[in-house]
Design brief:
The protein has about 400 residues and is an alpha+beta fold. It has two domains: about 1-45 and about 145-210 and about 325-385, FAD/NAD(P)-binding domain (3-Layer(bba) Sandwich); about 90-140 and about 215-320, D-Amino Acid Oxidase, Chain A, domain 2 (2-Layer Sandwich). The chain has eight helices and 20 strands. It has helices at about 15-25, 65-80, 100-110, 145-160, 200-205, 290-305, 355-365, 380-385; strands at about 1-10, 30-35, 50-55, 85, 90-95, 115-120, 135-140, 140-145, 165, 170-175, 180-185, 190-195, 215-225, 240, 250-255, 265-270, 275, 310-320, 330, 340-345. The strands form three sheets. Strands 5, 6, 7, 13, 14, 15, 16, 17 and 18 form a nine-stranded mixed beta sheet that branches. A hairpin with a 3-residue loop joins strand 11 and strand 12 (about 190-195). Helix 2 (about 65-80) packs across helix 7. The longest helix is centred in the first third of the chain and has 18 residues, at about 65-80. The N and C termini lie far apart (about 50 Å).
């Protein structure tokens, strides 16, 4: 059975899909969103209770204009939902001055006048960092709760008329006269335009991009503090830390109160670097646990000596990594701008969700690429213009 025509169909209702449905419906489009699971869920990249939001972007200054747009989007969504979504706790940066975490944050701050202060590590006695480490504070940074954010964006999309279908697996999609057709386990749907934001399943939806997308399993760890006040929300900022022994960075959050009853889980920290490669999207690799706990225990013993009990809660999420860690936002070749995709967010995309949704809605309805995402074009893969390895 073929359902009626839509202006756009969005495949994937995670962070970027929910934002895109919201922005499309907000623009007056007739939009259908489809997800194989019930979002928010633990099969994608948004699991784990919290995601850092920041503007002094060490990855590259090119992201800052898009981040400013995202900041406005988070505040707009909070007004719509009536929920506090973006907790501005501030964000600490610890590391050697020459490390990309520090040098990159300062460069983004300099180029776009993002307020960042040099502070003394002694002001934050929870952390025992080397005396030669640089310590920065970005006050207008913090975190969002991804589950609440996705729920809020989906509710905003529904309120503007979007039709959303969960627990419905997409089997195939193809071009038809006048637009696109999406075939699922439960029906066939047609639309003028198609948006693919299917996260870890992006390589299945767009096979020609599969070679450029590596899915990895990532660990998120919670530990019990000896003194709850040391890590309390309102006392401890979010933080990032570079350690030359490990690739990437470590990061963490103040302890969050439970969202729906129960007890809080404690102090969360994680390692931002590609984890174990996922060979089967329908299962998790138990080998991850001991691998990640070794590095987390090392970081806890060296930078937080004597501050935590040896009690651990471990969860996982997934990164879908591009070759250079930059996002892939573009039109799919050979479809006359009828197919838009946003993939490869490489573990640092959630904070951008309201802005990416706005960009994808514009690309879908207006047929043009916004200048804030031109540097994220997938054409760089074909042209060999990769900016560098993922940190």
């Amino acid at each position: 059975m073929i359902e009626g025509w839509y202006d756009a169909i969005v495949i994937g209702l995670g962070s970027m899909g929910s934002a895109t449905c919201w922005r499309l419906a907000q623009s007056g489009a007739r939009v259908l969103g489809i997800d194989r699971f019930e979002p928010p869920h633990r099969r994608g990249s948004h699991g784990g209770d919290s995601r850092i939001v920041r503007q002094a972007y060490f990855e590259h200054p090119d992201y800052v204009p898009l981040l400013r747009r995202a900041y406005r989007g988070w505040d707009e969504l909070a007004d719509i939902s009536g929920c506090t979504l973006f907790e501005r706790t501030g964000l600490l940066y610890f590391g050697p001055a020459e490390h990309l975490l520090i040098a990159g944050a300062l460069e983004s701050s300099r180029r776009y006048q993002v307020p960042v202060e040099k502070v003394s590590a002694s002001e934050y006695p929870l952390f025992q960092v080397p005396s030669d480490y640089c310590c920065l504070l970005e006050r207008d940074a913090g975190f969002v709760r991804p589950d609440l954010a996705i729920e809020s964006m989906l509710n905003a999309a529904r309120a503007s008329g979007a039709e959303l279908k969960s627990n419905e697996k997409v089997i195939a999609w193809n071009q038809v006269d006048g637009g696109m057709e999406v075939i699922t386990e439960k029906g066939n749907y047609q639309a003028r335009k198609l948006v693919i934001v299917s996260g870890a399943w992006g390589g299945q939806m767009i096979p020609q991009l599969k070679q450029h997308l590596q899915v990895t399993q990532q660990a998120l760890v919670w530990v019990k503090p000896k003194n709850d006040r040391d890590v309390a929300l309102g006392v401890l900022p979010c933080w990032t830390l570079a350690d030359e022994k490990y690739p990437g960075i470590f990061y963490g959050f103040p302890a969050l109160p439970p969202r729906r009853g129960g007890s809080g889980r404690g102090f969360k920290l994680a390692h931002h670097a590609p984890g174990l490669k996922v060979e089967d999207l329908d299962r998790e690799d138990p080998a991850l646990q001991e691998t990640i706990l070794d590095s987390i225990r090392d970081i806890l013993s060296r930078y937080f000596p004597g501050r935590f009990e040896n009690e651990l809660i471990l969860e996982s999420c997934r990164y879908t990594n591009s070759p250079d860690g930059d996002f892939l936002v573009d039109y799919l070749d050979h479809f006359c701008r009828d197919v838009v995709f946003a993939l490869g967010f490489s573990g640092h995309g959630f904070k951008f969700a309201p802005a990416i949704g706005e960009v994808l809605a514009s690309m879908t309805l207006e047929g043009r690429v916004d200048d804030t995402v031109e540097f994220l074009s997938a054409k760089r893969l074909e042209l060999g213009k990769i900016r560098g390895d993922f940190v």
